[in-house]
Amino acid sequence: MTGQPKTQFDVKLDAKLYRAAPHKLQRSPLFNFFALAVKTVSLVLFYYCFSISLTFYNKWLFKGFHFPLTVTIIHLAVKFVIAVAIRKCTERITKTKSITLGWSVYLKRVAPTGVASALDIGLSNWSLLYITISLYTMSKSTCIIFILLFAIVFGLQKPHLSQAVIVFLIAVGLFMFTYESTQFNLEGFIMVIGASVIGGLRWSLAQILTQKQELGLSNPVDTIYHLQPVMIIGLLPVAVVVEGIRISSTKDFLGFINVDVIFHTSMMLLFGACLAFMLALSEYLLLSRTSSLTLSISGIVKEIITLFLAAEINSDKMTTLNALGIVICISGITLHVITKAIQSKGQTKVEHHIQTKNGDSLQMLLADGAMDESEDEDDDIYDRRRRTQVTRI
Fold this sequence. Notes:
About 80% of the residues lie in helices and about 0% in strands. By secondary structure, it is an all-alpha fold.
């Protein structure tokens, strides 16, 4: 998890996990690891559910509704409306005003992330018109290459020989996967690779955006609320040029003749938009609550699951050479994860030393003895220990 201060929700969740844990585990030094593992696995599964579902749903939708950019804009608009509704409800319940960034900060920090996100999602959806889910998944895995490159460009990471090996393995694996593939489409392939390039920039900017405490966008709903307008503005001109005339005349949507047809289409688009909102929510939760190492590991497993489901559900075909390409590409991604784990080992030791010196709020609670059975009293004890910690520091 990132080094962000614990919110009231985090404290309550830790207290609930403490009560749910076996008595021996409550007294064990491993309880911190247990609580972290439960929260991380839950976030990853939450992300998997909506990421994989939306990929297959969009692929199915675009078989009969050939307007991916229009669909993307509708998704963005619905996500913005849902975010506004949640923020309003939260303000009424908590009696606190939601964060709203000023125009200068918005244009400087949010706008670049929003434009990159819009182009990434738009090109990704557009490519699904032409390529299989297997090729889409493998091509999108190259995003790691561009994340590494942008990290070097931004000075966030120094060049290393292992990075060249990682890039080589992923590139060779992708080449082998696409070589003489009967389901290969050059136009769709160029689109999804373009999405990967922009995606590398997008996630580098998004991580900075969600983890900068002074911006106050650690809440994923606030992040979605601020990003959607600029994403719509960034993608709308492209959608108008590419799909404007066709979408306004198609009988499946704006040029409808039968009311039942547009109602059915609208419901399909609305359902996809809800999936897209939940995916965005899970992405930013995972991004703001975990490390990039966790994202990388979970990404490997998600790609394997997606490739397996694509072969089973959509009957995506691949040769032995294509399958070997998958193995090599996944090996490159795995090497990336291992490299990051080694690089972060020293940083983890420093953070552990700081936590040991200052005292962790949960450890103070454990050392104090068994918790009371009352939930409210549990939370009061937990909060009181945290205040005591701050006073001592």
